[in-house]
Design a protein that fits this description.
Radius of gyration: 19 Å
Helix content: 40-55%
Structural class: alpha/beta
Bound molecules: farnesyl diphosphate
Largest sheet: 6 strands, parallel
Order of helices and strands: HHEHHEHEHEHHEEH
Mean pLDDT: 95
Oligomer: single chain
Distance between the termini: 27 Å
Strand content: 5-15%
Length: 261
């Protein structure tokens, strides 16, 4: 019995990552994958380690997953690294999380350049600590002319906050006469969000067993496919990413229309 991608169950279990990558349909690789990287704390707890050890391991895993996404032809990878709600965590944990972009971007930048990957950010950068802003700005400046995959970090990001800012921006345009009320469309909203330059995600992945969106890309995920796994983020492997993409490729996206349309 073959599945929709032509895999027999035992073949798939024995296949190497390379085999599985080869077998993907290059014409339906999700162009934009968004990931809620959950479960760092639980990963650490299981090993009797402090929570921050989980965040550090999670940061290391960002490299692995970035490389793999790039290899299979993903165009945008958006990673939820810090939400507007995460400020409520203990001060020490927040401070640790705010150091991660520096460590990650400093050591990974040469490879990002080699891979032609461009770093970008959604979220309110101004409220991040100076050293975090500096690291992100430096990575964005250094990679700005890269034309390959976009590695988009959501930091100090909250979707409802993003919508509020977008509404304010649109109202200001109406008030100053550059936009008429009748011309406000879905496109007006999309183009005033922080993701204006990016396509909507095709696939949303959330790790660690939680089945919710946690204020992430609420408008942009309207037609995305969702894929959930119990695996904690630090252990989310290339194989797991391929599993999500394989599942995506076996689905029939209808955008509210009928099957096959
Ligand atoms: C949620 O797990 C995870 C976060 C709030 C932080 C995610 C950040 C990273 C994976 C590193 C980011 C890397 C860079 C380069 C910026 P949790 O702590 O809520 O886990 P728990 O639910 O098990 O406690």
């Amino acid at each position: 019995m073959l599945d929709k991608l032509g895999w027999r169950k035992t073949d798939k279990q024995n296949a190497t990552l390379e085999d599985r990558m080869q077998k993907l349909d290059p014409n339906s690789v999700p162009q934009h994958i968004a990931i809620i990287m959950d479960g760092n704390g639980r990963w650490a707890q299981k090993r009797a380690l402090p929570r921050v050890a989980g965040h550090h391991e999670g940061m290391k895993n960002v490299r692995t997953i970035t490389r793999c996404a790039n290899k299979i032809g993903v165009r945008v990878l958006t990673l939820y690294a810090f939400s507007t709600e995460n400020w409520k965590r203990p001060r020490k944990e927040v401070e640790f999380l705010m150091r991660l972009p520096e460590e990650f971007l400093t050591s990974f930048l040469p490879e990002l350049m080699e891979l032609n990957i461009r770093v970008s950010l959604i979220g309110e950068m101004d409220s991040l600590p100076g050293h975090t802003q500096k690291a992100i700005q430096n990575a964005m400046d250094t990679t700005k002319d890269n034309t390959g995959m976009v590695l988009n970090f959501a930091m100090n990001y909250g979707s409802r906050r993003e919508v509020v800012l977008s509404v304010k921006e649109i109202v200001a345009q109406v008030q100053n006469g550059t936009l008429s009320l009748d011309d406000i469309s879905e496109e007006t909203i999309s183009s005033n969000l922080m993701t204006a330059a990016l396509p909507d995600p095709d696939l949303l992945i959330r790790t660690s067993g939680e089945l919710r969106l946690s204020n992430f890309l609420l408008w942009q995920l309207a037609y995305s496919e969702f894929w959930f796994t119990d695996v904690h983020w630090p252990e989310f492997s290339e194989g797991n990413l391929l599993e999500a993409v394989e599942s995506y490729q076996s689905r029939n996206r209808r955008y509210g229309g009928l099957k096959g349309e």
